Amino acid sequence: MITVDKAGHWFRPEHWLFRDLSFALAPGKITAVLGPNGTGKTTLLRALCGTLALREGSVSADAAIGYVPQALNAGHAYSALDMVLLGRARYLGRFGVPRQADAERAFECLSEVGLAHIATQRYDRLSGGQRQLVLLARALATDCRVLVLDEPASALDLANQGVVLRLVRQLADRRELAVLFTTHHPDHALGVADEALLMLRDARHIHGPIENALTEANLSELYGVPVRRVDAIATDEVATAFVPLYGLRRAASRAEAS
Ligand SMILES: Nc1ncnc2c1ncn2[C@@H]1O[C@H](COP(=O)(O)OP(=O)(O)OP(=O)(O)O)[C@@H](O)[C@H]1O
Where's the ABC transporter domain (predicted)? Predict the structure, then answer.
């Protein structure tokens, strides 16, 4: 669906953000992209969506891509449903007027992210998390085959993070969408992704099956802090957290002792 071949990009001459990057997005598969701030994750997303021309290599896509930004200002007093309806733009008729079927599809997508009850509320007055979910609904309304999400859970509370991660997994499993998302949460990546792309500093990267890529050693190198993996086992579920060892508690107990 999407093939990235030997991709490379820089904004400052010879300061490569990434280089020699090759991977593919396939139907039903989820790829998580992780890396420190400024390593080029959003830049890579822009290249995938065709809004940035790479310095090296190529991206080829044979399917429509739905892009979900971290945030977007509406610019007008649109309702949440209007925002989702914008996702139908490419299907509108000659005079650009949405039909009943478009409105129904938009409402369906808003319901899918659990926000049917705020359909008539103004988008610009919603919370950051609600707006993020509306933008996901807007991408779904495009009926894309590839979904590209920039930190989809960054503004969401713990429960809604689970809602979005489950939804993303369902979209891959049931609708056979190819999905790529960026995240600063390795546990989110392990929870739903099939593959991980770790974008390290100095234009290096690690790409592979999720369990192989998200090791303590790789994550410690990626973020420059020691990272430990902790598995919490409940009745019918294993949840994994990757815990950075910042030394905060040790410092606090030393202060208490003195
Ligand atoms: N249009 C641009 N012109 C010049 N430099 C840019 C441009 N866009 C991004 N950059 C720079 O490229 C680097 C990578 O930016 P990018 O937004 O891709 O990082 P990121 O990995 O998504 O970071 P974060 O995790 O903080 O969102 C940054 O140093 C940024 O300042």
Answer: 2-226
Q: How far apart are the first and last CA of the chain?
A: 61
Rounded to whole angstroms, the Cα distance separating 41 from 199 reads: 7
Tokens of 12: 């400052």
Query: Which of 11, 12, 21 to mutate for ligand 1's pocket (most ligand atoms within 8 Å of CB)?
Result: 11
Ligand 1 atom 1 nearest Cα: 11
In the numeric block, which tokens belong to residue 40?
């080029």
Q: Is 254 domain-assigned? A: no
Helix (H, G, I), strand (E, B) or coil at 218: helix
Cα 9 to averaged position of ligand 1 atoms, centre (Å): 11
Residue 244 lies in a domain: no
What pTM was computed for the model?
0.91
**What is the CA(205)–ligand 1 centre distance, in A?**
16
CA dist 184 and 100 (Å) reads 39
**How many angstroms is it from 200 CA to the middle of ligand 1?**
14
Look at residue 131 and tell me if it is in a domain: yes
* Amino acid symbol at 26: A
The percentage of residues in the chain with a pLDDT greater than 90, rounded to a whole number, is 71
For 196-241, write each residue's pLDDT tens digit. 999 999 999 999 999 999 999 999 999 999 999 999 998 888 899 9
Looking at this predicted complex, what is its ipTM?
A: 0.98
Which range marks the domain in which residue 107 is found? 75-142
d(CA 146, CA 2): 8
Q: Are 213 and 53 in contact (CB under 8 A)?
A: no
- 58 in any annotated domain: yes
**Among the listed residues 137, 132, 209, 143, the one whose alpha carbon sits nearest the alpha carbon of residue 176:** 143
